[in-house]
Amino acid sequence: MQDKLDQLKSHLARVRDLELVNSVLEWDMEVLMPEGAAKSRADQTATMEALAHQYFVDEEIGSLLDELRDFESSLPFDSNEASIIRVNRRDYEQQVRIPTHLVEELARHRSLSYHSWMKARQQKDFSIFEADLARMIDLQKQVAAALSDGGNPYDALLDIFEPGMTYEKIDTVFSGLKPNLIKLVEAITANKDRVDDSILRFPLSLDKQEAFAREVTAKFGFDYTKGRLDFFNGHPFETHFYQGDVRITTRIEEDYPAGALMSSIHEAGHGMYEQGVSLDLYRTRLDNGASSSIHESQSRFFENVIGRSRPFLKYWYPKFQQITTPNLDNVDLDTFYRAINKSEPSLIRVDADEVTYGLHVILRFELENDLINGRVKVSDLPKEWNSRMKQYLGVTPPDDSKGVLQDVHWSAGLFGYFPDYLLGTIFSVQLWEQMKKDIPDVEAQIERGEFDQVLGWQRKNVHVHGKKFTLPELSERVTGGPLRWEPYMNYLQAKYSEIYRL
Amino acid sequence: MQDKLDQLKSHLARVRDLELVNSVLEWDMEVLMPEGAAKSRADQTATMEALAHQYFVDEEIGSLLDELRDFESSLPFDSNEASIIRVNRRDYEQQVRIPTHLVEELARHRSLSYHSWMKARQQKDFSIFEADLARMIDLQKQVAAALSDGGNPYDALLDIFEPGMTYEKIDTVFSGLKPNLIKLVEAITANKDRVDDSILRFPLSLDKQEAFAREVTAKFGFDYTKGRLDFFNGHPFETHFYQGDVRITTRIEEDYPAGALMSSIHEAGHGMYEQGVSLDLYRTRLDNGASSSIHESQSRFFENVIGRSRPFLKYWYPKFQQITTPNLDNVDLDTFYRAINKSEPSLIRVDADEVTYGLHVILRFELENDLINGRVKVSDLPKEWNSRMKQYLGVTPPDDSKGVLQDVHWSAGLFGYFPDYLLGTIFSVQLWEQMKKDIPDVEAQIERGEFDQVLGWQRKNVHVHGKKFTLPELSERVTGGPLRWEPYMNYLQAKYSEIYRL
User: Fold this and answer.
1) Which residue of A has its CA nearest to B10?
2) Architecture of domain B168-202+277-500
């Protein structure tokens, strides 16, 4: 049977190479490809995705996965071997249902609609993107129809990014959180003058911002011999082509140095996750973060739970004062801490604070469900977006670039991905509660600028496992129970009651 | 039959995508990949090359090429359709002889030996590279054996880069040139004090060097919406993933601004060639420079024939004086012209002047022939290299990094490529002689900074045809006769007799 497993692994290695090569193409496309290459890159990624798909859904892989059922049962659930078989079977059963021509068409349309979305956003004109988005939603419906055995078609898309998750399961969590978030937002809004973040707005040279972002992320444990940080003007993101080749990007605004810093920490959180996946899983298709939720649990853990905490700032703020002198010379730690945690309803999700963030996600989650189920028409989307923003956050976008056009996801065919931002955020706090139990003096360590145990804990409990476990499985393993929204809400309540003296 | 051609083209499109994607991987590897990725990138390129090869030598392509023979004969030789069939048949008949496992092994070994070559060069220690080079030569011999029907095995390798070329044919050209070059080198050496290039050695900030390189190359016609110029510390090169995605790189030395400038022009010459290939040839495998010789005819045309000429400098030198002020304020155009054309036997091929350059190439050509035919042992290579350098150029490398380890080519498996540098250089002058006939006032145009007709002439006569014609075919078409070394030697003689007052 070891023989059959080796055969399976050799098939998977080729598929994985093709998947990772395609990621190189996409990184290049976003970070540095010249505009004249849009057409060719669309062809290239379409060919690569079709091939990766074709080789993965190969009948031989199907037979091997079948033949390995008994062998898998004989092994511990959490062994690498059993997991390689189990997780690849799950993916196989999903992907085998999607016809190769649809994969290819999606890849091609993604490249095209990415460009029309970019143009629409730049020109603040939704109509430029409308037809491509409608086509993308149509393609997504085709994917959902191929994957689904009935029920809500949105469930099939959610399952791609977070296996086992359905609209109903997620809605149960979000429905618990939503009224509490709205109440907290109202309480903060009523006391909004108690925090002033205007002290964060001052210019700092790009060079200094870059150097500081590199220093902080390296200290956390992002290994620059196994990755890169690039600064560019697009949507910040992380991608990886190997545990030893992890690329993160950040957008720098000259007038808001705290922004690039926090964004770098966020992406480094994703990056350290990928760098920490066991090398034993290389080319098995489990050499990857487990899911988008768990990925987000890492990025938002390092950005918010740690990066916007008093202990972290106690160590780093004096250094930040030094490189930004004289701008913050007379701003004490407490004032800076409160400023960097200011909560205020705003238009852009990626810039949203910890309290309002969840509502941005819930809005998208609900809208996606309505779009896929045909209850909202694409032509009505800007209107619908704006009316829900008003309802949840009390703000109205002045134009679509700050509204429905702000996120790259839909142009990239990522429907069903948004809820994972909030699921991951919720999980990040559940991990933090567990970490504090396991490392009682963790906050004192962070105050001293010691991050080895923090990273080590995530390495051991989350990173090393790669894609072996789902969110429910990992939650059970690490925290002894299922995902719960209450610890997250308690964390927000405590943190913001103190900041806003509620 | 149009139907069969369409089928062929759809097969070729996939192959071409895979080839171009592999070029993205290689560009990334050389320009910005982190060191931790060496292993994964070797796996990825091996998988890609094996797939591209496997899909290209597919039996169906073979049958289609067969079935299209009559159709091809019915079409004009220089039509796109006939050329697509003819050139792909030639490549097919070559590649089908190389077993896929050898392609994969070569790709993998190339990644490994690239790294051991780098290390050997850094540590100036040939022994670090010796075993990998020996293995590479062994693999090259296997390729030659697979391709060859007898005769000199080196011919089979030469034919890969310059179809139809053999050791004997090239030797005929080089043997005519060699004694003349040696004589000219001797005459210049006897008068070496007549030109002083120390005025070129002064520091200039990297920013200014980059900006000027971009300005000059853009003015020549390199289109930055369809390409990039990156500055990095490795061997300068050009690569392309589409006519609209051409990447060139340059190495900058802070203390020698003329170096980065000339190197940028050289690479832009390659780049403009690729940008100018007819879009009708996209994804046909003819969307590519014709051969390495013809490629070099373009880069060395723009770098030397134009870039080191009086008319060019008449326009650009005042601008160069401005950005380098005060260093060249008191250096007149004639002094600068002579300095930038100084000829002196030296160690490094890529830094060699126009006169000595050919001897560097001839040395490699002869050595490769001896290596492939087993007349020189790998362990004797440094000794052999140094003794021939002494004989041809009168200089001896102080260590192997400035001798046998200086070029990347052998580590990359490029045996049979070197002679094309000189063949292309020879052809660049033959093109220039023709251009002067076709555009009588071309030098006056260049003096005025007008390059449209220069580029337009190359576009129309060379670029647009892509890979349709071989060097002999193109030479015949454009200059009305075969490749001849005499115009090149006359050009050198005239230029250098004037500069050195011989």
Assistant:
1) A47
2) Orthogonal Bundle (1.10)
Q: Judge: A242–B20 Cβ closer than 8 Å, yes or no.
A: no
Residue ranges covered by each domain of chain B:
2-161, 168-202+277-500
Tell me the chain A residues in contact with residue B35 when contact means C-beta distances shorter than 8 Å. Answer: 225
| B-chain residues near A277 (CB < 8 A) | none
- Residues of B taking part in catalysis: 267
Task: Using an 8 Å CB-CB cutoff, list residues of chain A that contact chain B.
Answer: 13-14, 17-18, 20-21, 24-25, 28, 32-41, 43-44, 47-48, 51, 223-228, 241-245, 282-283
What number of C-beta contacts closer than 8 Å exist between A and B?
Answer: 109
Cα–Cα distance, A87 to A79 (Å, whole number): 12
Active site residue: A267, A303, A354, A366, which one?
A267
Closest listed residue to residue A258, CA positions, set A330, A195, A313, A315: A313
| Closest residue, chain A, to B12 (C-alpha) | A47
- Candidates A9, A10, A16, A17: best to mutate against B (most CBs of B within 10 A) is A17
Question: How does pLDDT run across A109-162, given as a tens digit for each residue?
Answer: 998 898 899 999 999 999 999 999 999 999 999 999 999 989 999 999 999 999
The amino acid occupying position B285 is R
B interface with A, Cβ–Cβ below 8 Å: 13-14, 17-18, 20-21, 24-25, 28, 32-41, 43-44, 47-48, 51, 223-228, 241-245, 282-283
Rounded to the nearest angstrom, the gap between the alpha carbon of residue B298 and the centroid of all alpha carbons in its chain is 9
Q: Residue B230: closest CA among chain A residues belongs to which residue?
A: A32
Which of B44, B228, B244 minimises the CB distance to A39? B244
Helix axes B418-438, B452-461, angle to 10 degrees: 120
Tokens read off for B474: 């193109």
Tokens 């039509």 locate to: B79
CATH of domain A168-193+207-215+233-500: 1.10.1370.30
Nearest to A38 by CA among A103, A109, A131: A109
* Helix spans in B32-125 (H): 38-56, 59-67, 69-74, 80-95, 100-122
**Two structure tokens written together for A155:** 């469930």
Q: CA–CA separation, A259 vs A257, rounded Å? A: 5
Instruction: For residue B245, give the nearest of A13, A34, A245 by CB distance.
Output: A34
The nearest CA of chain B is from the CA of A376 a distance in Å of 38
Return the ∠ at Cα A355 (arms to A350 and A361), rounded to 5°: 50
pLDDT of chain B, 502 residues: tens digit per residue: 899 999 999 999 999 999 999 999 999 998 999 989 988 998 999 999 999 999 999 999 999 999 999 999 999 999 999 999 999 999 999 999 999 889 989 988 988 898 899 999 999 999 999 999 999 999 999 999 999 989 999 999 999 999 989 999 999 999 999 999 999 999 999 999 999 999 999 999 999 999 999 999 999 999 999 999 999 887 899 999 999 999 999 989 999 999 999 999 999 999 999 999 999 999 999 999 999 999 999 999 999 999 999 999 999 999 999 999 999 999 999 999 999 999 999 999 999 999 999 999 999 999 999 999 999 999 999 999 999 999 999 999 999 999 999 999 999 999 999 999 999 999 999 999 999 999 999 999 999 999 999 999 999 999 999 999 999 999 999 999 999 999 999 999 999 999 999 9
Q: Which residues contact B40 (CB under 8 A, 6 or more apart)?
A: A20, A241, A242, A244, A245, A282
Q: For chain A, what percent of residues have pLDDT higher than 90?
A: 95
User: Cα dist. A114→A34, A103, A133, A134, B245 in Å?
Assistant: 14, 16, 10, 13, 18
Q: What ipTM, to 2 d.p.?
A: 0.93
Measured distance CA(B48)–CA(B45) in Å, rounded: 5
Element (DSSP H or E) covering residue B230: strand B227-231
